[in-house]
Amino acid sequence: VEFAPQFAQGLENGVGRTPALGWNTWNQFGCNVSAALILEQARLLVSTGLAEKGYKYVNIDDCWQNHTRDSHGKLQADAKRFPDGISALSKELDAMGLLLGIYSDVGTKTCAGYPGSSGSYEIDAATFAEWGISYLKFDTCSLTAAERKDPRPAYGEMSTALNSTGRPILYSMCNWGQHKSYQWAGGMANSWRTTEDIWPQWQRVVELLEANKDLAQYARPGAFNDMDMIEVGVNGHVFNQKLLPRTKLTSREAESHFSLWALMSSPLILGLDLSQAPQWALDIVGNDEVIAMNQDAAGHQGNLVAEVKHGSILGGKCVSLGNCTHTQVWRKQLAGVQSVGVVLFNRGDDWTENSPKWQVETVQIPFSKLGFAADVSVHVRDVLEHKDLGVMTGSVALPVPPHGVRTLVLKAVGGAAYA
Fold first, then answer.
1. CA-to-CA distance for 277 and 160, rounded, in angstroms?
2. Which of 86, 160, 316, 390 is such that its CA lies 20 to 30 A from the CA of 114?
3. Among residues 62, 139, 226, 228, which one is catalytic?
4. Alpha carbons 251 and 255: distance in angstroms, whole number
5. Angle value at C-alpha 246, between 229 and 208, nearest 5 degrees
6. CB of 286 closer than 8 Å to CB of 277
7. For 189, left (φ over 0), alpha (ψ -120 to 50), or beta?
8. pLDDT digits over 100-144, tens only?
9. pLDDT by residue (tens digit) across 72-104?
10. Reduced to 3 states, what is the DSSP secondary structure of residue 363?
11. How many CB atoms lie within 10 A of CB 117?
């Protein structure tokens, strides 16, 4: 079923004017959630300096609940995992300068089989507000027949219920892009998932990037396409299934993933175990200049402006006798007419960065394709290296390894910036 596009302005609930920054339990810990885990990871957000960089939401995903509601119809936390309750946990995070997020489902049960919010939207929203919740991830399992046919009323009911509490709660819809939710979710949610789940494998990263490349028109302050969580430093499994092979991104792939999600104005919700995080992973997700690109006040999503493909590519692999090439250039308009974020991307093989059929490529883009007038000189800064590359005219061209990026901020030098 498809619905007519609605180009409503972003949800005016006082939060989420820029993409959310935070941390979530699911990708690394699954159902192994507890108050002790949340407090451990929250303290590490503070001690690593990530909280100061803006990662303020600490989100409990599925499996925090008791299997039954209480006698008043309220959701209740698992007493063994959360012995002092959710409200006490929220207060502890508040004392650290952090905000607690929680998970529920638009359907009758959550994806892990716990009570969903269907038919209880008002009481659940009130409960979350009473507990001091500041972020709701709202999933899409176990839908009723009516919800499967048209999920908009149900998601809208929860939006109304949350706003009626008087507490600012960021509303993150997680309906996997079904019914082209990017066309209608902007008036009821701060962000909405555009695909099914991510896992830490290069093929999945580029698949989700591809799925979002034509959705920039739907993003704006307070309303963002959610490409799913950040897999930097996550040790996971294919399809997030524990019986399937383990997988993780290399440091180069992780840096590219983070830069591209930032440029696309996707929420940056971390999933790594901060107690085991390698320094390279903390450096990637803590890059102030990349975070600033994501958090730019204009709220524009990046879009693909150039692509080069050579050779025979089948199933993401090069099947030519010689080498193959697949490079892209992505652009994001930043606040002020003289500044753009740019990612020069060597997409390479879908499966490994070490295939001999894919090489370091010089990725070049004329400034005119980035919106600059032909005679404008442009200052180029490499935000991954925190290094000024100087003033250039005509174009920029830089070497990029397979699965790698060069992430840049370009600013016109004086005069009019755009043609």
1. 39
2. 160
3. 139
4. 6
5. 35
6. no
7. beta
8. 999 999 999 999 999 999 999 999 999 999 999 999 999 999 999
9. 999 999 999 999 999 999 999 999 999 999 999
10. strand
11. 27
Query: Residue 346's Cα: distance from chain center in Å?
Result: 21
Q: Residue 6: pLDDT above 60?
A: no
197 is catalytic: yes
> Is residue 337's pLDDT more than 70?
no
Q: Is the pLDDT of residue 416 over 50?
A: no
Mapped onto helix, strand or coil, the DSSP state of residue 391 is: strand
Contact 353, 396 (CB under 8 A): no
* 115: β partners: 109
Select from 294, 250, 302 the least CA-distant residue to 268: 294
* DSSP string covering 287-340: -HHHHHHHT-TT-PPPEEEEEEEES-EETTEE-SSS--EEEEEEEEEPSSTTEE
Pair type for strands 404-412 and 339-346? antiparallel
348 φ, ψ (degrees, to nearest 5): 65, -160
Per-residue confidence (pLDDT) for residue 5, from 0 to 100: 43
- Tell me if residue 139 is catalytic: yes
Report pLDDT for 338. Answer: 87
